[in-house]
Amino acid sequence: MSRMEALIRGWQQLQRMLLPWRCLLCGAAGGEGMDLCAGCAAELPRNHRCCARCALPLPLPAALCGECLRRTPPWDAAWAPFRYLWPLDRLESRFKFSADLAAGRCLSTMWQGQPRPLAQPQLIVPVPLHRKRLRQRGYNQALELAKPLARAWNIPLRHDVLQRQRATDAQTELDARARRRTVRNAFAVRQGLPLPAHIVVLDDVMTTGATLAECVRVLKRAGAGRVDVWVLARAPRH
User: Fold this and answer.
1) Second label for 214, Cα 20 to 30 Å away, from 114, 128, 183, 203?
2) What is the distance in angstroms between the CA of the first residue and the CA of the last residue of the chain?
3) Domains and their CATH numbers in the chain
């Protein structure tokens, strides 16, 4: 072990002594390197039973859900290891809207621990925020989730491939059709940038999939071959 490595390890041990990890959900002692205890981590709802095409949670796994039979998504595959339910939705809300970066680290760490798709993409592209929203929030939650995944899995990451050229209103209360109208022509691919054959578009949560679908269409029109979507969590359809 080098002297620098020994110093880093000693500093990390001192940090754990002075500032021990604490679970953000229940206040108990956190797990190793994470502000989440083992019990609460086990409570995060996994998305094991879902549509193979869009990752929509289902009572039983299916190759295609009813929505995919009616309207085929433009992406080639989707992966959402969690469902957007309690208590994950609380951590995500704190991360996204309350600048709780510790919650974001917990979510990213949990994401890394899930079995991932066999197909290895050549590039991860996070869904971009409009510059106005980025100034307000101070960070792009999709990019912050993507960085640790890209490092852990040795996948190139670029945040400048997609650009959000038009600000859009909040979509929380909109139905699927209204969301599609809202994001139409909201994204563009940076000109002069060669695209690899297999790209993943990454976001934090998928509800109707309208934003991700528009990103995928723009990338495919620009010459991308295969485009998958990865999201931390998929919202059930009510």
Assistant:
1) 114
2) 54
3) 34-234 (3.40.50)
